[in-house]
Amino acid sequence: MLFNSISFFIFLAGVFGFYVSAPQKLRPAVLLLASYIFYAVLSLPYAGLLLCSTLSGYGAALLLAAAKSPSRKKFIVVLCLCFNIALLFAFKYSFFFYEIIKSLVGFAGIAYEFPAVHILLPVGISFYTFKTISYIIDVYRKSVNPEKDFIVFALYVSFFPSLLAGPIDRASRLLPQLRENRRLSIHSMAMGAQLIFWGLFKKVVIADRLAIYADSVFNNVAHHTGPSFLVAAYFYTIQIYCDFSGYTDMARGVAALFGFNLMQNFNLPYFATTITDFWRRWHITLSTWFRDYLYIPLGGNRKGTLRTYCNLLLTMAVCGLWHGASWTFILWGVLHGLMLCASRATLSLRDKTYAFLRMPNRAVIVLRTAITFNIVCFLWIFFRANTISDALTIISRMGTGWPVLFVDAMTMLHGILGIVVLCIVECIQRVGGSIRESVCRSPLPVRWAIYLAAFFSIVLFGVDGGSQFIYFQF
Amino acid sequence: MKNFFFAKLALFLALLFVCDRGIYAMLSAAFFKTETGETGGFINRILNVRPDALIIGSSRAKHHYDPEIFEKALHMRVYNAGANGQGIPYIRALTDLVLKTYTPKIIILNVDASNIIYAREENENIKNLAPFIDRSDALKRILYGQDIFEPVKYLSKSFRYNSKPFAILKNLYAPEMDTSGFSGLQRTMDASLFRATPDRMPTDKLSPYAGSVLLLRETIRATQQSGVKVFIVNGPRWRQDNRVAHEQKPLLLFLQRLADEERVPYFSVTIESHPQFQNPALFSDPAHLNAHGARLFSDIVAGFIARALDKKPL
Questions:
Q1: Which of B237, B213, B228 has the alpha carbon at shortest distance from B108?
Q2: Ranges of H-type helices in A291-403
Q3: Which string of DSSP letters, residue by residue, matches A243-254?
Q4: Nearest Cβ partner of A456 from B19, B146, B170?
Q5: Closest to B277 (Cα-Cα) out of B242, B309, B252, B311
Q6: Which pLDDT band, with edges at 50, 70 and 90, does A307 fall under?
Q7: Which sign, positive or negative, has the C-alpha torsion B118, B121, B126, B127?
Q8: What is the dihedral of CA A386, A387, A390, A394, to 10 degrees?
Q9: DSSP 3-state assignment of B234?
């Protein structure tokens, strides 16, 4: 059930109807049932995996609370972590490592017929296992109390707006909301509806449109040259942002309809002035997860420069691997790690250079933003390319074939207009404006005109039958 | 308070309805004035011109059949209604639209092996004909059948013009030159690029798709019942080894059997049956002939049809 499908909106209307008519005490149970139905529609057997992860977190937290000795507490935490990581490994990475072993055996000249293996990746497993892991670690660190109400905890793990592709909300933030009797408010519902529409606009009008061009280039690397690769790379940069942030907006909007406030996952990432800044603005819930549960436990930046660089590289490599069992994702992560290290290493040199050149502050910000944006855009090539070989082909042929460009006029016109709208909205947000608040404060005819314009722009310019959200595959 | 909310909601929905119908009316008025463009304008031209012979198929029809050559051989007005990315759903829908407007003398269906296996792209691209949904029951059935909730989308009349407004404006104020639908490709293939990766169909979907086969049979029967002479033609694909791909052969045999069952003349032009097409200089890419190759192909097919018509006059 994709968020950009009619069946989802029918499902949402039904769930909302049951939710508002249910007694307050039963509302978490209504949402929990709805979340499992939502997941079971995708795959009934894999709903069992979701339940297993939930039970492991719930049980481990209660055992932790009851355990007296530190060694026993550690054992419980390690057991729960290993269980969830094993789940993730078995269903997401086992085939990848199986293929590596096959390659190594073949390379060693050993003749062995490996059995065929087919494992279907359960949608959302990367997200809900990370929620469970963060919960148990937070309980261990005593930054959150163990949740005794199973319904509330199970809802935290499986809450359907964020089940498939985040945000990866922290227990300390979401559990109290799920526990308390939330009052529904017209203002919250209106803001939620606006977020849903904006997210849907970004997904079907911008992302899916740009995907038509980007896919035709990235999936046919042999037939394209420099100009097309460059345009496709920039289009993909906007596509993945609109796709993922569009989904997140819809998830937050749906949650707001029920009175819940999910974590913000994007904060104008393409206005970042450094790679470090980019990772504070992009997929915030994931980057903070890796910061708090991997980078800092490894020592963070407290053990000297060399160790800091190693920690950054390792964290980003794991981040790349989290995105998918493929060498392209791992390489993308490692390259981001290298960029983070380079950014740290050259920070003072760059500051001195700008000071020496007496560049005005605004010019420095614009230059830094442009450089960071182009670095991120370049690295997305590795993320999107079907193989490393394709990525290297694209990069090596970036200077060839000028000025002949593969033109799909209507797609490009639609895409560019969508990008213009996106830029206007984000520039307003960049200078501190809030379009949603402005809309809410506007007179009724103006509000309705905006809603009608949004509705018909989706009907007339959205890609019908577009692809699933990119981050669903992770 | 609640009553006020529901009153506002009802008023908003009424406004939505009025705007939807208003936008639909404006776009319809503009669309049905266009006569070129892949988003369906060229269908308006066909329905206005009413050619005696119509060629229907995918991009391989669009780039392979030169109407001028057919007109000289058949002595009648010919139009090429080939469209990129289309397949049998398109063939069925366009045939139904045409037969509801007038009765041509001949319809040539370009059907490839790839058309009779399931192709998601073809089922998506049929939506280009959405403006005609109210004029063709077959088209309505095909569009509504794509998803259980598809009819809900079409409650919005404006939705028929999804992704079309700019194309409509472009075709209205800067129409393409009319070449009777034919578009000859000017590029010549670089065979060295394709030696390692010869044109292959997806190997995981080799059986004929029941839905496509049913639509094809419906098309043939509907045209025959209207007294139209139908031909099925299959065009060549280039391969480095000069053979038809092994996964295509059973599908071409299936097509031959289907044509025999429906008593429709079937003409298959492959690089095995017509070795002149083993020359890569006749192709723009392994799946498409260039303009030079299209002239040769059109000569061959027009000759076949002319001979068939001589034996059984219209």
A1: B228
A2: 305-323, 327-356, 361-384, 388-396
A3: HHHHHHHHHHHH
A4: B19
A5: B242
A6: very high
A7: positive
A8: 70
A9: strand
Q: What is the distance between the alpha carbons of residues A123 and B30, in angstroms, rounded to a whole number?
A: 44
> Under a CB-based contact definition with an 8 Å cutoff, are residues B118 and B212 in contact?
yes
Compute the distance between CA of residue B296 and CA of residue B299 in angstroms, rounded to an integer. Answer: 5
CATH code where residue B99 lies: 3.40.50.1110
CA dihedral (A354, A359, A362, A366) in degrees, to 10, reads -60
Structure tokens given for A149: 């109400």
Catalytic residue among A283, A323, A336, A414: A323
Question: What is the enclosing helix (H) or strand (E) of A305?
Answer: helix A305-323
- Are A238 and A206 in contact by the 8 Å Cβ rule? The answer is yes
Per the annotation, the verdict on A323 as an active-site residue is yes
The span from the first CA to the last CA of chain B, in angstroms, equals 73
Distance CA B281, CA A291 (A): 58
pLDDT in tens, B82-105: 998 899 999 999 999 999 999 999
Which residues does chain A have within 8 Å of residue B170's beta carbon, measured at their own beta carbons?
410
Q: Where are the alpha helices (DSSP H) in B32-183?
A: 41-49, 59-64, 67-74, 88-101, 120-125, 137-144, 150-153, 165-173
Distance CA A467, CA B121 (A): 12
SS3 category, B232: strand
**Which residue type does B187 have?**
R
Return the amino acid letter for A91.
F
> Domain total for chain B?
1
Q: How many CA within 13 A on the CB side of residue B314? A: 19
- Between B162, B164, B165, which is nearest A462 by CB? B162
Check B193 against A223: CB less than 8 A apart: yes
Q: B184: closest CA among B61, B277, B72?
A: B61
Phi and psi, residue B230, nearest 5° = -110, 140
Peptide bond into A167 cis (omega under 30): yes
Amino acid at B274: H
The C-alpha atoms of residue B229 and residue A121 are separated, in whole angstroms, by 51
* Residues A411, A220: Cα–Cα separation, whole Å: 17
- Residues spanned by the domain of B11: 2-311
Return d(Cα A64, Cα A140) in angstroms, integer.
Answer: 7
Q: B174-201 in b/e burial notation, b at 16+ Cβ within 10 A?
A: eeeeeebbbbbbeebbeeeebeeeebeb
d(CA A350, CA B282): 57
Q: Comparing C-alpha atoms, which of B269, B271, B265 is closest to residue B300?
A: B269
Q: For chain B, what is the total number of helices (H) and then of strands (E)?
A: 13, 7
- Which residues neighbour A317 within 8 Å (Cβ) at sequence distance 6 or greater? A330, A333, A334, A337
Residue in A closest to B171 by C-alpha = A410
Structure-block tokens of residue A29: 């149970």
Interface predicted TM-score of the whole assembly (ipTM), two decimals: 0.87
Nearest to B153 among A6, A410, A455 (CB): A6
Token pair belonging to B283 = 């192709």
Could you tell me the pTM of the whole model?
0.89
Q: In A, which residues are within 8 Å of B165 by CB distance?
A: 460-461
CA-wise closest residue to A138 among A155, A156, A162? A156
- Cα four-point dihedral sign A96, A99, A100, A101: positive
Q: How confident is the model at residue B200 (pLDDT cuts 50, 70, 90)?
A: low
Condensed to tens digits (0 to 9), the pLDDT of residues A70-79 reads: 999 999 999 9
pLDDT at position A98, please?
Answer: 83
Owner of token pair 């004909």: B129
Question: Which of chain B's residues have a Cβ under 8 Å away from the Cβ of A7?
Answer: 148-149
- What's the token pair of residue A69? 């000795």
Q: Looking at chain B, which runs of residues are DSSP E strands?
A: 53-57, 78-82, 106-110, 229-234, 266-268, 283-285, 288-289
Tokens representing A84? 């969830």
Q: How far apart are CA A202 and CA A246, in angstroms?
A: 5
